[in-house]
Amino acid sequence: MIEIIQKVKTYFHKQFGEAHALLVAAPGRINMIGEHTDYNMGLVLPAAIDRCIYMAIGPAKHATRIVSMDLADELVVYDLEHLKPHQKAWPNYLLGVVDEMLKDKKMINHFNVVFAGNVPLGAGMSSSAALENAIAFGLNELFELEYDRISLAKLSQKAEHNFVGTKCGIMDQFTSMMGSAQQVIKLDCRDLSYEYVRLDLKGYCLLLVDSNLSHHLTTSEYNLRRRQCEMGVQIIANKFAHVTSLRDVDIAMLDACVSVIDPVVYKRCQYIIEENLRVVQFCDLMEAGDVAAAGNILFIAHRAMRDQYEITCPEIDWLASMAESLMGVVGARMMGGGFGGCTINLIETTYLEDFKEFISNGYRQKYAIEPGFYEVNISNGVCLLE
Ligand code: GLA
């Protein structure tokens, strides 16, 4: 971590002279449970982690220069007032935020940026939210824009909608902004009320297993799930006028509409309604100190993502079901948007090394892919390092 920070600082000073730079660290996130519930006004249980985007940012005169050290790529922008989505993906996470701030009538002058990170890309750990939040936080400090953290998270989310094209919920940006060391965030996405909950894992630990798949379905399928949920809401609202989101719906109400609802839409709605209940159950069981029973909810959640929401893929299903069959594993499920990325596993600490060995051998044999393993620590949200 110190090495990346040093690398970013050194590059910034070499490239842009001795000009003063602010240094921002913006974390990725995990999510214990509550997947795809955020844009349905539901409940989630994420936490920020000790993997971040590190960004040096300072003022500039005639042009804005942005350097992605990890991709060895650079972007120069002369006119910030008329930004459009870029044909490459990565600049959009930054330009989108600038554009939202300008639309919000904020004064933003040219700036220089250098960034690098250790949030794995495409692993479902929200490297994109980390990048959006890093630039949002950095610009807020640099130009004294006076946004609070939650407003910055909302701006980052809008950038993702308008420049990146994913109609994501608020979970990732909120978590990366608001994270708190050793605590998960029980966030109600209906009104953004939240509570920090200490995660006492007792003799268990969290391990992420990266499927190392690069699936490209994510954006289109993600947006499709969102539309299917909206279609469900429309139909249910015909019968129950007070319904504005799936948060207002229970299974009995959904069942009352079964004859007029498309079967696929039915499954999507059922998943969301039950996933909200699983978040509550998981929290209750953790509070009661029953980590193993809480973990079991993760297995159930995985099957629901596989069969009802249909956002998994064979490799990820293999990782989750293999974990379920192993000694010492009390919970496992896919984490994040879907179609690849990581599984999150709750493992008795003494079995950790056996688990890694078994999974890497088995996965390599079956799919000829080397999985990644990340032991993550729950950390604070975005901060200024210098
Ligand atoms: C992505 C989105 C989030 C959320 C998750 C699924 O990470 O950015 O808003 O919907 O998928 O829970």
**Level-2 CATH architecture of the largest domain:** 2-Layer Sandwich
CATH third-level topology of the largest domain: Ribosomal Protein S5, domain 2
Strand order of the biggest β-sheet: 5-4-6-3-1-13
CATH class of the largest domain: Alpha Beta
Poorly predicted sequence stretches spanning 5 or more consecutive residues: none
Overall mean pLDDT stands at 96
Structural class of the secondary structure composition? alpha+beta
Distance between the termini: 15 Å
The biggest beta sheet is recorded as: 6 strands, mixed
The value of Rg in angstroms is 21 Å
Summed up, the helix count is 11
The residue fraction in helices comes out at 40-55%
Order of helices and strands: HEEEEEHEHHHEEEHHHHHEEHEE
By DSSP, the count of extended strands is 13
Instruction: Estimate what percentage of residues fall within beta strands.
Output: 15-25%
- Gross morphology is globular
Query: What is the total domain count?
Result: 2
Distinct small molecules: alpha-D-galactopyranose
Can you describe this structure?
By secondary structure, the protein is of the alpha+beta class. The protein is 43% helix and 21% strand. It has eleven helices and 13 strands. A six-stranded mixed sheet has the order 5-4-6-3-1-13, with helices on both faces. The protein is globular. The protein starts with a helix and ends with a strand. The protein binds alpha-D-galactopyranose.
